[in-house]
């Protein structure tokens, strides 16, 4: 239905915008020896804004307030830090 199409749109948009951030950063490494100019910061900031927008609308479409997403992430990272599990891999460490 329309809800699924909206969610798919948001997921694909988030993925695409995240890819744009990575692509711009890759070119900074490749073409500028990793030196980030003020113009680069502005362009990366614009792309991060697009990523943030997709996160916000996706969260809203799921019925999960963005504040809850942020709070859950902070709690998860604090727990990992306390347990010394920030390094490594896996979602539930």
What would you note in describing this structure?
- By secondary structure, this protein is mainly α.
- The protein is built from 3 helices and no strands.
- It has helices spanning about 1-30, 40-60, 65-85.
- Helix 1 packs antiparallel against helix 2 (about 40-60).
- The mean pLDDT is about 95.
How would you sum up the major sheet? none
Compute the CA-based radius of gyration: 17 Å
The succession of helices and strands, N to C, reads HHH
Give the fraction of residues assigned to helices.
over 70%
- List the quaternary state of the chains: single chain
Low-confidence stretches: none
Would you tell me the overall average pLDDT? 93
Per the principal axes of the C-alpha atoms, what is the gross shape? flat
Number of strands: 0
Distance between the termini: 35 Å
Instruction: Report the portion of residues in β strands.
Output: under 5%
The number of helices is: 3
Structural classification: mainly alpha
SSE inventory with pairings:
Blueprint lengths: L1 H31 L5 H25 L3 H18 L10
Which terms would index this structure?
flat, 3 helices, 93 residues, 0% strand, mainly alpha
Write a brief caption for the model:
By secondary structure, this protein is mostly helical.
